[in-house]
Amino acid sequence: MNRIMRTLLGVTATAGIVALAVPVLGTAANASPTSPADINSTSHAHDLRQAQPFLFNYTFNGHLKIAGGNFTIDRRVFLVVKYDTGRTAFSKWEIAHPHPVTPGGAVYVETTIAAPCAGSNNGYARAYDEATRTWSPRLPVSICQRID
Q1: Sign of the C-alpha dihedral, residues 117, 120, 121, 123?
Q2: What is the pLDDT along the chain (148 residues), one digit of tens a residue?
Q3: pTM of structure
């Protein structure tokens, strides 16, 4: 019995050493790029890209709420809502946090803009991920003011 166990353990240990040695003996193709110039279309550069940030909107507490995902977790995101003319209606810095439903770092910002709003979209929202220096695509929104 001991002889069988020693034989099995010896074979297993030898197979483990061979398996560990194979990557070391492989080509340099497995090596990480050392500079941005080393990354080309044949490398795994597409695996390193972060998904593009996105935004969506909804009404909450009588206000327009802007939310989005795929931002850098625990980093600053600048949210801005502008009229189509370029005039800013609302802006705020927010920290992106993990969220159980929204992928990547998520932001949920309640604006001071009244909602729901009758009429067509007369503005847009965008968010800037400070860590990646990436803007989200424009999200068309309706901007209105309450008349009380």
Answers
A1: negative
A2: 555 545 444 544 444 433 333 344 344 444 434 433 443 444 433 444 578 999 999 999 999 999 999 999 999 999 999 999 999 999 999 999 999 999 999 999 999 999 988 888 999 999 999 999 999 999 999 998 666 6
A3: 0.65
Residue 16 identity (one-letter amino acid): G
38: left (phi > 0), else alpha (psi -120 to 50), else beta? Answer: alpha
Domain 50-141 architecture: Sandwich (2.60)
**Residue 83 CB contacts under 8 Å (≥ 6 apart), including other chains:** 89, 122, 123, 143
Q: Which tokens go with 146?
A: 């309450």
CA distances from 24 to 19, 20, 28, 30 (A): 10, 7, 9, 10
Give the span between the Cα atoms of 72 and 126, in whole angstroms: 15
